[in-house]
Amino acid sequence: MARIREAVPHRVPPQATTSGRSGGEDGVVSLRGASVRVGGRTLWSGVDLEVGAGELTAVLGPNGAGKSTLIKVLLGILPATTGEVRVLGDVPGRAGHRIGYLPQRRTFDPSLRIRGVDVVRMGLDGDRWGVPLPMPVRFSARRRAARDRMAEVIELVGAGAYAHRPIGECSGGQQQRLLIAQALVRAPELLLLDEPLDSLDLSHQGAVVAVIGRICREQGISVMMVAHDVNPILPWLDRVVYIAEGRAATGPPQQVITTQTLSRLYGTTAEVLHAGDGRLVVVGTGHGTAGEGGHAHHPRSG
Asked: What is the rounded CA–CA span in Å between residue 125 and residue 9?
C-alpha cells in the first residue's frame, strides 16, 4: 500500500459534502434526488452526486444494497424511479459510445485459445456478427488505426508481455488488465467498473488498482467502480458513494467513511477505526470487520 501511495500525484480534494451535490457544475455523472425500485423494493433513494472529469469514485456498501444497480442505471439498463440522472450531459443510454464498461468478473476456461489481443479487439468490433473478414485496401488506414489503438491500450494497462497468449493461460490479474484494455479501446470519457477486484489476491488487487488510478490521472478519464473493500483503492479516491439500508451518502472518503455518517446510514452504531497499517475497519454493523469501508463481503453485490 505504501508503494501505491507514493505513486499518487498531489490532488486537490473535491469540494463536497455527504448531504448534497458535490463537484463542479458540468459533471460527467450527475444525480439529483435519484431513487430506484426493483421488484417493488426501493434499493436507494435521495442520491445526489456530481462526478467530474478525471475523478475516481468508489461505490460501496453491503451485499444487496444496490451498488451494481447504480451502474445499470448509469448505463440506461434500468430507469431511475424518481429524480434526475445525467451521464455525459445526456439521459442514460444515449452516450454509450463514450462509456467503457467492465461487468462483474468473467471467468475464462483454461483451454480457451482466443488470444488476449483478440479479447481487446472485441471492444472495437465485438458488436459485429461472425469472424472478422480481411479489410479491402481502401480500409487499410482504418485497420492500421485500430491496430495502433489496441497496441496503445495494451501498453497503457501493462499487458504487452502476454497480450498474444491464449486468454485462458493468463492469470486472473492479467485477464483483468486485458478486460480493462477492452473497455478502454474506444477511448471512453467515462469508465464504469463492476467489482474489478473481485476474486483477485492482494498483490493482483494492488496492481489492477494502480492501473486504474494511473489511467484516471494520466488520461483524464472519469472512473466509477463498485468495490467490496475500499482499502486497496483508498489512496486514489476522489469521492465515495456509500449505499446502505436504502440510503446513500456521497462525498470525499474522509467525509463519508466516518462513524457519524455510517451510523446514520445503517441506523445503528457503526464505528470507523483506523488500523495501524492505514486500513479502515468498520465495526458494529453486523457485517464483519474488514472490507467495504471495513465490512467483509465476499458474495456478489446487489
From this structure: 35
Q: What is the pLDDT of residues 120-153, one digit of tens each?
A: 999 987 654 444 545 555 567 888 899 999 999 9
Q: In what order do the strands lie in the sheet with 99-102?
A: 99-102, 190-194, 222-226, 56-60, 239-244, 247-251
Indicate the SS3 state at residue 251.
Answer: strand
> CB of 256 within 8 A of CB of 242?
yes
Angle at 13 between CA 7 and CA 18, to 5 degrees: 130
pTM for this one? 0.82
Residue 137, SS3 per DSSP: helix
Report DSSP state, residue 83.
E
Q: What is the chain's mean pLDDT, rounded?
A: 83
Question: Which grid cell is 37?
Answer: 425500485
- Tell me how far apart the alpha carbons of residues 226 and 180 are, in angstroms, rounded to a whole number: 14
